Amino acid sequence: MNDRTVHAVDADHAIRLCSVSRRYGSGDSAVTALDEVSLAFPRGTFTAVMGPSGSGKSSLLQCAAGLDRPTSGAVVVGGTDLTRLSERRLTLLRRERVGFVFQAFNLLPSLTAAQNVALPLRLAGRRPSRARVREALAQVGLADRARHRPAELSGGQQQRVALARALITRPEILFGDEPTGALDTRTGREVLALLRAMVDDAGQTVVMVTHDPVAASYADRVVFLVDGRVNGELTAAGADAIATHMTHLETAPC
Ligand SMILES: Nc1ncnc2c1ncn2[C@@H]1O[C@H](COP(=O)(O)OP(=O)(O)OP(=O)(O)O)[C@@H](O)[C@H]1O
């Protein structure tokens, strides 16, 4: 690829992983969690990452989000290779250009919903306007709960506050690690519908690790990992087709 092609590719993709490997430990106890994974996540798309336990899903998310450094390979976010950044610049990039939601909502209990949402901007030394916080809460349907503390909100509402907090910096990409794992079925579906709407209406890029075929069916594309390698993908697939594929991966002989 020449420079011009590289720029064109990066304009179309929120993030690219190029031959990313992550090894833990050394010698006899060394584990290869990711083995030369190359993947691109086009802007404005929703990707689910699935695979058997231990296949490398969390390692992939951690490396892609700049929370962990690959042993080798490159992670390119908006034209910047994360693996070459100093810790300080990596922290800044993560804070401003990447959003996260986890299974645990990780809200600060003593702060109101609005204060929790404003936190990433405050940590970045910026003073968030009330309008911007209100807009983020309205985006997740919680405009009327701004002054409530987490204990006064349902699990689904708390996860929506966490989503608003992740989106307040207008990140290039939003990562979710089992974001509906702690929610009941109906509430989980509401959060998934919200993620889908963020992609369709706001052009957000979303990458989500999940074990749930129904959750994965909200995505445009499902990428499957096995033993730290990409092992196929499905596009616009329903939950039944995704579940069948997963069963096949889990029962296939090595
Ligand atoms: N800090 C670590 N030190 C050593 N090995 C690790 C570490 N983190 C992960 N691993 C190993 O790397 C491999 C991939 O782990 P990872 O957590 O990425 O898988 P996963 O697909 O997310 O699993 P699960 O679905 O069970 O959460 C596993 O064999 C795991 O034991």
From TrEMBL:
Cross-referenced CDD domains: ABC_MJ0796_LolCDE_FtsE (cd03255)
Gene3D superfamilies named in the record: P-loop containing nucleotide triphosphate hydrolases
ATP-binding keyword on record: yes
UniProt keyword annotation of Nucleotide-binding present: yes
Domain ABC transporter, chain residue ranges per copy: 15-252
Keywords from the UniProt entry: ATP-binding, Nucleotide-binding, Transport
Pfam families reported in the protein's UniProt record: ABC_tran
PANTHER family hit by this protein: ABC TRANSPORTER RELATED (PTHR24220:SF685), IMPORT ATP-BINDING PROTEIN (PTHR24220)
Name this polypeptide is given: ABC transporter
Organism: Streptomyces ambofaciens
Lineage: Bacteria, Bacillati, Actinomycetota, Actinomycetes, Kitasatosporales
